[in-house]
TrEMBL record, chain A:
GO terms for cellular component: plasma membrane. Belongs to the MreD family. The chain crosses the membrane at residues 6-26, 63-83, 95-117, 129-149. InterPro entries: Cell_shape_determin_MreD_prd, Cell_shape_determining_MreD. This is Rod shape-determining protein MreD.
Automatic annotation (TrEMBL), chain B:
This is Cell shape-determining protein MreC. The lineage of its organism: Bacteria, Bacillati, Bacillota, Clostridia, Eubacteriales. The gene is mreC. It comes from the Bacteria. Involved in formation and maintenance of cell shape. GO terms for cellular component: plasma membrane. Residues 68-98 form a coiled coil. It comes from Pelotomaculum propionicicum. Belongs to the MreC family. Residues 123-270 form the Rod shape-determining protein MreC beta-barrel core domain. Signal peptide: none annotated. One of its GO terms (biological process) is regulation of cell shape. The keyword Coiled coil applies.
C-alpha cells in the first residue's frame, strides 16, 4: 500500500468517523474504521507492515483528537501486528477468516487501549470496558469487514506489497 | 541474538518509550495545543462542518420514511395528547405563578438568563476513538471562548472546554472517564463527584456518596459549585441505580445525564457567570 494514498485514506476515514458515523451508532457504539483498515491491511501484508500501518493510522487519529497522542498509535500497532501474524498462519483469501481475525485483533487492540488508559491513570471498570466498549466495538467493526475486504485485497494485489 | 534483530528490538523499545512519554505529556489537563495543531484544526473545521451537515441530512432522509410508519394513528393519539396537555398547562401555569409568588422559586431558564452570558455553538465533530467523550464546537477564541468554560444545553450540563483554537474548541463531556464534576443530590444536598464511565455509552456515576445518605433512584443531581469550574445549580442528571462501593464506606449511583449527549447538535457555552456566594468564576484561568 502506498503511504501517501494510505495517509489520504486515513484522513478521509477519520473525518467520516468523527462526523457522519455517529448516525449509525448502536447504544453509543460505533465501528472503528481506522482499526478495520489497519487489521485488514496487516492481515494481507504481514506483521511488519501491519504494525507500521497501525502505528501511522493510530498517530494520525491521535493528532486529529489532539490529546493523549500515542494511545491509538500503540493499540493499533499491536492490532496490526497481531493481524499480520494471523495472516502468516491462516488462509488469507477467505472472508469469514478475515472477519474473525478483524474481531479478535480489534478486541486485542481495544484491550491494549484499555491498559494504556490505566497507564494514564484513567480508571474505567474492567467489566464495563470489556462488555460495553471493547466487545461491541470489535463486533461492530468485524461486521463491516466483509464489505471492504475484497477491495483492500484487490488493491494490494494490483499495487504490489510495497509501501 | 543477531545484530539486526537486536537493532529492531531497540528501535521498538525506543518507539514505545517515546510514544508513552508523548501520551503522558498530551493529557488534556496538562497541555495546550501547539500552534501547528491549532492551525490544523482551524483548517479542517469547514470540512468537518460540511461532513456533519451532510450526515444530518442523510440521517433526516433515512429517518423520515421510517417515522411515517403508523403516522396516522400516532397523529390521532398526539392530537388527544395535545388537548389533554393544554388543560394541564393552564393548571400548571396557575401552580407556577403561585409558586413564584410564594416561594420566589425561579425556573432554571430564568436563572440562566439572569446569571450567565451564553453563546450558542454547533457540534462539528466527535472524538474518533471508543474510550473518550469529546466533541468539537464551531466556536473558538475569536468568539471569546476560553478553557474551562462550562458547556450546557437547556436540559442540563454537557461538559467543559478543554482546548481552544481561533475558530473551534474541544469539550470534555461529563461522561468521559477523565471528567469529574462536584455535585449534589438536589433534594437532600448530599455531596458527591459525578465522573464519566466511558465516552460512548453516555452514562456517568456519582461516587463518594456517604453510606448513610438518603439517596434514591429518580432524584436529580445538580452541580455543587464548590471547588469546581462549573457554576452552582446546573442540572447534571437523574439517579438510575445505587450501589455500594467496594470499600463499604460509600455508595455510588449511576446517573443518566439530562443533556442528550449522544446526539448533541447545538449547545450553549457559558462565557460569563455572575459572581455570587458559592459560585466560582468560570472561564479563563
Amino acid at each position: 500500500m502506498h503511504l501517501p494514498f494510505y495517509l489520504l485514506l486515513l484522513v478521509v476515514i477519520i473525518i467520516f468517523q468523527t462526523t457522519i458515523l455517529n448516525i449509525v451508532a448502536i447504544a453509543g457504539v460505533t465501528p472503528d474504521l481506522v482499526m478495520l483498515l489497519v487489521v485488514l491491511s496487516g492481515f494481507l501484508l504481514g506483521t511488519r507492515e501491519g504494525a507500521f500501518l497501525g502505528f501511522i493510522g493510530g498517530i494520525v487519529e491521535d493528532l486529529f483528537s489532539g490529546c493523549y497522542i500515542g494511545i491509538n498509535a500503540l493499540s493499533k500497532m499491536a492490532a496490526g501486528y497481531l493481524a499480520g501474524a494471523a495472516g502468516d498462519r491462516l488462509y488469507r483469501e477467505n472472508i469469514p477468516i478475515a472477519t474473525g481475525v478483524t474481531f479478535f485483533t480489534s478486541l486485542a487492540g481495544l484491550i491494549v487501549n484499555y491498559l494504556l488508559l490505566l497507564y494514564l491513570k484513567i480508571h474505567v471498570s474492567p467489566l464495563y470496558a470489556f462488555l460495553r466498549v471493547a466487545l461491541p466495538t470489535a463486533a461492530y467493526t468485524a461486521v463491516l469487514a466483509p464489505f471492504i475486504f475484497r477491495r483492500i485485497f484487490r488493491y494490494i494485489q494490483l499495487r504490489g506489497r510495497d509501501l | 541474538m543477531r545484530w539486526v534483530t537486536a537493532k529492531r528490538l531497540l528501535f521498538l523499545i525506543v518507539l514505545i518509550a517515546v510514544t508513552l512519554a508523548a501520551m503522558r505529556s498530551t493529557i488534556p489537563e496538562r497541555t495546550r495545543l501547539t500552534p501547528l495543531g491549532s492551525k490544523f484544526r482551524d483548517v479542517i473545521e469547514p470540512v468537518q462542518t460540511g461532513f456533519t451537515w451532510v450526515g444530518r441530512q442523510v440521517h433526516h432522509l433515512i429517518s423520515f420514511p421510517v417515522s411515517m410508519i403508523g403516522a396516522t394513528a400516532r397523529s390521532q393519539a398526539l392530537e388527544e395528547e395535545v388537548e389533554r396537555l393544554k388543560s394541564e398547562i393552564i393548571q400548571l401555569n396557575e401552580y407556577k405563578m403561585e409558586n413564584q409568588r410564594l416561594t420566589g422559586l425561579l425556573n432554571y431558564k430564568q436563572v440562566m438568563a439572569q446569571k450567565f452570558n451564553l453563546i450558542t455553538a454547533s457540534v462539528i465533530s466527535r472524538s474518533p476513538g471508543s474510550w473518550f467523550g469529546m466533541v468539537t464546537l464551531n466556536r473558538g477564541a475569536n468568539d471569546g471562548v476560553q478553557e474551562n468554560m462550562t458547556v450546557l444545553t437547556p436540559e442540563g450540563l454537557v461538559g467543559r472546554v478543554v482546548s481552544v483554537t481561533a475558530s473551534t474548541c474541544q469539550v470534555l463531556l461529563i461522561t468521559d472517564p477523565s471528567s469529574g464534576v462536584g455535585s449534589l443530590v438536589q433534594d437532600t444536598r448530599t455531596p458527591g463527584i459525578v465522573e464519566g464511565v466511558d465516552g460512548k455509552t453516555m452514562v456517568a456515576r456519582m461516587i463518594h456518596i456517604p453510606n448513610n445518605a438518603p439517596v434514591e433512584v429518580g432524584q436529580a443531581v445538580v452541580t455543587s459549585g464548590s471547588g469546581s469550574v462549573y457554576p452552582k445549580g446546573i442540572p447534571v442528571g437523574e439517579i438510575t441505580a445505587i450501589r455500594n462501593e467496594p470499600s463499604g464506606l460509600f455508595l455510588s449511583a449511576e446517573i443518566r445525564p439530562y443533556a442528550s449527549l449522544s446526539n448533541l447538535e447545538e449547545v450553549l457555552i457559558v462565557t460569563y457567570a455572575q459572581p455570587e456566594a458559592n459560585t466560582p468564576r468560570v472561564g479563563g484561568q
